[in-house]
Each structure stands twice: as C-alpha cells, then as structure tokens.
Amino acid sequence: MQLDITNDSLKVYEALASDVRLAIIRLLATSKMNIKEIAQELDLSSPIITMHIKKLEEAGIIKTEKVKQNKISSLKVDNIEICFPKKIFKAFDTYRSSIPVGHYTDYLVEPTCGLASVNEFIGKVDEPKYFMDPRRMDASILWFTKGFVEYRTPNFLSQSDTLEMIDISLELCSEFPFSNDVWPSDITFSLNGCELGTWTSPGDFADTRGKFTPDWYPDKNNQYGLLKTIRITNHGCYMDGDSLSDISTSDIDFAAETWTFKIEVKEDADNVGGCTLFGKGFGNHDQDIDFNVYYS
Hints:
The protein folds into two domains: about 1-75, Arc Repressor Mutant, subunit A (Orthogonal Bundle), CATH 1.10.10.10; about 85-295, Jelly Rolls (Sandwich), CATH 2.60.120. Strand 3 (about 60-65) and strand 4 (about 70-75) form a beta hairpin. By secondary structure, the protein is mainly β. Strands 6, 8, 9, 11, 14, 15, 16, 18 and 19 form a nine-stranded antiparallel beta sheet that branches. A five-stranded antiparallel beta sheet has the order 7-10-17-12-13, with no helix packed on it. Strands 2-4-3 form a three-stranded antiparallel beta sheet. The protein is globular and about 70 Å long. The model has no long low-confidence stretch (mean pLDDT about 95). The chain has helices at about 10-15, 20-30, 35-40, 45-60; strands spanning about 1-5, 35, 60-65, 70-75, 80, 95-100, 105-110, 115, 140-145, 145-155, 165-175, 185-190, 195-200, 225-235, 235-240, 240-245, 260-265, 275-280, 290-295.
C-alpha cells in the first residue's frame, strides 16, 4: 500500500494511531484469527475488538471473511509506503513532458505480457506480437516478464540553457501471473544509452483496487504500482532521495534532439520478476511517464 499526505490517506493514519490496533496487526501477521481469538490474546472484550477490526477494515489494512460460522480476519497489506511531495530546493526553470505508457518506440518482451486501455485488453495477453498492434497507442497499462520497453521524449533545451537536473516520475511494480504482493524484481533504467541504475520492486500488488483502475479490470490482476521518481543531478542519480548510482548529468549525452528512456528487466538479473507500468486511468496515480527538466 502506498500513501500520500492528502486527506485521502487519513483513514489509514487514524487506523494506525492505536496501540490496540497495532497489536491486532502484529497478531494477524503471524496467522489468521477470529474475533474471539484476538480478544483472548489481548485480554479485551469481543465488542471492543470488533470496533477496532472495523477501523482496520475501513482503512484497507485487513480483511474479514466468513468461514463456516466464524468471521476470520487477515492482513491485506505487506508493507505501507508514504510518498512525500518532491521538493525542488532551487527555483530552476522547467520543461515538462509526459509520455503515455503505450507510446514506446522500441520493445522486446517475453510472456507473461500484455496491454490494456481504460476500456479493454489490447489483443491477446501473453503474445508479444500485440505490442506492435496500432491500438497500443491507447494503452494505459502494460506488463512483461523479461525484456524492455523504450520511449523517446523531445529535448526542449536551447543552446543558452544550462541543464541542472532531470526528474523522471512513473508508477510501476513487478509482474506476476495475476498478482503477488511479495515478488521482487530488478528493474533497470537507462537514459540516452547510459544505465542509471537498478531498483528492486517488492511485488505486484492487488491487496486493494487501484484508485483509478477501471471497474471492468479483474480484481485478481495487479491493481497499482509504486510511484517512483528518478532524479539525475550534477552529483549523482537518486530514486526518491536514495542513491541509485554515481551517474550524473555530465555522464550522459544530452545533445540529441530526442532522448531515449529505457525500462528493462534483464535476463541475468538476480530477481527476474517482470515489470508493470501504469499510466493515466490505472493505478493510484493518474499520470503517465512524466519528465521534468530543470535548467537555468
């Protein structure tokens, strides 16, 4: 589960602000339990536990299912990540561009793989040839197990501009047939042929429906990714503030009229767990692949 600091996330923060509810989460992390079992473990009454369970259910942290005559509770999430606003410390001028996930200019993918628009699947899933279907331009989600997709973005810098920093923002996760919240995958990013670094996605998420994922899209399929921002500066490359590599703006050739951005799961990666890209109309963030180029 990925949270932001808007009011939309308040229910989760409120649910966690209780020593009893934290104790319930710790119990459910070890096994599924019913109300009576939780009450006995915490030495509290069943009505009190029922109230706390309801709060955790409303926040999407746990789920309760009826099994015979019992209501059994279990955890829905494996981890919670909080996404803070990205702060630019200096008032640079900015060129912005956004690339829909279906507008890749080159690809090489292996199943499981597929594409979908906000209305329907595009072609047959697990058949890479449909990645060349003209309808791919309408894709708002795509996934593959091994291989890459590559995008091009215009270089808006003029000769008088001095490049200061680049932010590349995108929502993505691993790829598992249907979904698996614990499914690590090493995803590598390159810009203009220069490898920026590799991020290990923790899983392929379907614990809750994506905020923007269309109603027709099956519950069992991956619902959302994690919003990640790659920042390339004159002193290194970072992802959400953590060092990704020592690559800096001086290591990359920015002279061409268009830049290429590659997203790849290598065949020899330690964790070959695939990649899913979410664009507008899918996932938790209503955006495509966003480029912010800061200059002075």
